[in-house]
Amino acid sequence: MLNLFLFVILPYVAIILELVVSIYRYYNNSYKFSSLSSEFLESDQLFWGSVPFHYGIITILLGHVIGFLFPSHVLAFGAVPVRLLIIEVTALIFGLLALFGLIMLVKRRMTDPRVQVVSTKMDFFILILLLLQVASGVGTAVMYRWGMNWYAISMVPYLKSLVFFKPDMSYVASMPWMVKFHIVNAFLIIAVLPFTRLLHFLVLPVHYLWRSWQVVIWNYDRKKIRKSK
Amino acid sequence: MDIRAQISMVFHLDKCIGCHTCSIACKNVWTDRKGAEYMWWNNVETKPGTGYPHRWEDQEDYKGGWEKKGDKVELKGAGKFRGLKNIFHNPSQPVMDDYYEPWTYKYSDLIDSPEGDDQPTARPVSLITGKHIDLKSGPNWDDDLSGSEIYAKNDPNFSVLDKQEQEDLFKLEKMVMSYLPRICNHCLNPACLASCPSGAIYKRGEDGVVLINQEVCRAWRMCVTSCPYKKSYYNWSSGKSEKCILCYPRIEAGEVPACMHSCVGRIRYLGVLLYDADKLESVVHMDENKLIDGQMDAIVNPHDPEIIEQARKNGIHDSMIEAAQKSPIYKWVKEWGLALPLHAEYRTIPMLFYVPPLLPIMGNVSENIYDNKNETYFTSIDQCRLPIKYLAGLFSAGDEGRIRHVLKKLMAVRIHRRGESVGDIEKEYVAGALKEVGMSPEMGEAIYKLSSLCTFEERFVVPASHREEAIEMTKMVLEQKGEVGFGFSDRPDRVL
Ligand code: SF4
User: Fold this and answer.
1) Residue B351 in domain
2) How many structural domains is chain B composed of?
3) Which residues make Cβ contacts (< 8 Å) with residue B381, sequence separation at least 6?
4) Could you read off the pLDDT of B174-188 as tens digits, one per residue?
5) Is A214 strand, coil or helix?
6) Residue B455 φ/ψ region, left for φ over 0, alpha for ψ in the -120 to 50 degree band, beta for the rest
7) In a domain, B143, yes or no
């Protein structure tokens, strides 16, 4: 029963919450749809927290996504032990990087008097969830090796079963508790994401890459006027 | 040809008395809020000095503006690749201590303190943390050359002066200073806008005001870095960047921005310039010594029938064109060539122009009579206490000839007026001075009038905007009539 709740109900609730709330907030209160930057108040410590955390977490997330999308390719790639080792070590390094960054971020938020002024309870809450998530991830990587392989073999089918609305918990049921925790915590993060500063990653400004340098906005349709005369 | 209109400004530095009325007017209207306490959209600095934020002109540190590399012009501290790369931590973003930590005083201590031997004092408390702070610096800590050792002597513009020249500036009998009031320049090639990853910043087509859409701003803070004038500020409380809005609600109603309206020295002029947007790209790419010429060339003559026709084609309203023809800015900048942009080398094409200060004229004292008449008309200019080189670094991208020419013209106006009002100079001398700078007596008189005897209406020529007609251009008015009008941001229907 608990398993059903944690591995089937929670994921769906989390994803629905994530989608509905972030879309609602984007269209109804886009003003608050960002992360309140505190670099202006404290910059040096932020560097040691934010940069390692972001580069670490983005690489790790990318790894998870690639494994999820192309499990068979990943398996084939990992068939050569050297490659597997390289991937494993790289992942661990980036995981540790993210962990280090997070610890710095937590420390900064707890100790810097200026940053405290702009910190909310939600900020600490999400930081702790992230800390647990990254710590359990790094722990899993250390204790249960060759995660790239077993992720592709037993985790991806579970996630796919969720995606195709045929939830099958048998894959996760036999996992060690740390992995289970990692999964549950992940869905928890997804659930609370739209209520926290984390949602800034949904508005990543990629469109900047192809927009023109200068933007001029007219309160009338200039082309129409130019053509009509 | 793509003719557009720009509301532009001229600040006549000879007239600025450094009273900071402008800053206070702006502060009271716009930035007296949480998170904005430290912001001075309008500030007045003493030059030589380090300004606000501290040493803002040092672009090796702050990385503001555009930079020409080979044939290409790119943002110095932001941009598509560099900006996104630094998005997790922006190494060249100024922090609060580069400005100052805003504070108030604990006035209640004056009343609540228990009886004692000493007078109670109101200690300063930070407006950020609410805790006691020891004040080390604040806005205009360097006012009127105070703290020269820390401030004036570290002016980044001194890089063009040699050691001796720098030392001379601080000899008691040679001390010199001038004020530099600054607001957003509402540039034609704004670096803040180009660097904004969210696309929150835009230039208004109708009047060229550069604005930050607070709904779209996502606190990436690239504009703060890339504005070389440091006129985009990050609100630490709301998590949005803010900047001078040229009091656009006032401008739209045909009123004058608060800083300009309140200016005690009446140094400020506001009016419309027409420019050819097609020329901008080439101007931005010009060599440093051509930049100002290029900018002047892009500003077009509002009396030229062809320009008027093209302007109309672009939807510029007749009232705007008329304002451009009456514009005091056009006179200062183009007709008289007396006003120059600040730090044109940043390549943002700023549209706030300065009449450089002619002070102090070094006269001769002979037989106890002070006289600024010289052998040749303009020898005094090169003896000017504020070295021409220094002024050139500020206003002409290092071109001393240009500054000298402007100062000569200003001097010629004075010689002309002295001839008129005191009458102790021979007519030929006056005529000679005017001729040397290619100025007619009428022009000299006009410059004098607009400098000294100008009325409010002559200083500010602002046409009210035509929002009412803007709707007719894009929508059928009769259809529009039944729709949502003023005051709703959304349709008032009740069905989901
Ligand atoms: S109000 Fe006018 S005179 Fe006074 S400091 Fe400002 S610009 Fe100068």
Assistant:
1) yes
2) 1
3) B358, B388, B404, B407, B408, B411
4) 788 999 999 999 999
5) coil
6) beta
7) no
CA distances from B79 to A165, A216, B86, B233, B286 (A): 43, 18, 10, 18, 20
Q: Using a 6 Å cutoff on CB, does residue B265 contact ligand 1? A: yes
Please report where in the chains the tokens 């009210």 appear, as a residue: B464
Cβ separation of A200 and B95 shorter than 8 Å?
Answer: no
Nearest Cα neighbor of B388 from B132, B161, B73, B89 is B161
pTM of the model: 0.90
Nearest to A102 by CA among A55, A141, A50: A50
- Give the residue-averaged pLDDT of B441-453: 96
H helix and E strand count, chain A: 12, 1
d(CA B339, CA B489) in angstroms, rounded, equals 42
Domain coordinates of chain A in residue numbers?
2-228
Cβ–Cβ contact B91 with A under 8 A: yes
**CB contacts, 8 Å: A37 with chain B:** 219-221, 234, 239
State both tokens at A143.
Answer: 């204790």
B213 within domain boundaries? yes
* Least Cα separation, residue A203 to chain B (angstroms): 8
Query: Cβ contact (<8 Å) for B88 and A50?
Result: yes
Token readout for A62 is 């990318």
Residues listed for chain A: 229
The interface residues of chain B toward chain A in range 128-147, judged by CB-CB distance below 8 A, are 128-129, 131
Q: How far apart are CA B428 and CA B417, in angstroms?
A: 14
Does B236 contact A at CB distance below 8 Å?
Answer: yes
Domain coverage including residue B424: 1-89+149-490
Q: Which site among A40, A111, A198 would you substitute to test the B interface, given the most B Cβ atoms closer than 10 Å to its Cβ?
A: A40
Beta strands in chain A, from DSSP E residues, in sequence order: 216-217
Two structure tokens written together for B192: 């803040």
How distant is the Cα of B467 from the closest Cα of chain A, in angstroms? 8
In angstroms, rounded to a whole number, what is the distance separating the alpha carbons of residues A43 and B234? 14
Q: Identify the H or E element spanning B10.
A: strand B3-12
Q: Angle CA(B4)–CA(B351)–CA(B156) in degrees, nearest 5?
A: 155
Say yes or no: CB of residue B419 within 6 Å of ligand 1: no
- Tell me the pLDDT tens digit for each residue of A81-118: 899 999 999 999 999 999 999 999 999 999 999 999 99
Non-local (6+) Cβ contacts of B485 within 8 A are none
Write out chain A residues lying below 8 Å of B89, CB-based. Answer: 39, 43, 46-47, 50-51
- DSSP characters for A103-159? HHHHHHHHH-HHHHHT--HHHHHHHHHHHHHHHHHHHHHHHS--HHHHIIIIIHHHH
Q: How far is CA B306 from CA B280, B298, B311, B312, in A?
A: 19, 15, 8, 10
B241 burial class (0-12, 13-18, 19+ CB within 10 angstroms)? buried
Q: What is the ipTM of this complex?
A: 0.90
Read off the tokens for B9. Answer: 């400004």
pLDDT digits (tens, 9 = 90+) for A33-77: 889 999 999 999 999 999 999 999 999 999 999 999 999 998 898
Q: How far lies A79's CA from each of A61, A74, A82, B65, B441, in Å?
A: 22, 9, 9, 52, 91
Cα of B170 to nearest chain A Cα, Å: 35
Q: How far apart are CA B30 and CA B468, in angstroms?
A: 26
Structure tokens at A170: 């048998």
Task: Name, in order, each residue with C-beta under 8 angstroms of A207's C-beta and a sequence gap of 6 or more.
Answer: B199
Radius of gyration (C-alpha) of chain B in whole angstroms: 25
Domain membership of residue B220 (yes or no) is yes
Q: The domain that contains B76 carries what CATH number? A: 3.30.70.20
In this structure, the strands spanning B201-204 and A216-217 are parallel
Look at the domain A2-228 and name its fold. Fumarate Reductase Cytochrome B subunit (1.20.950)
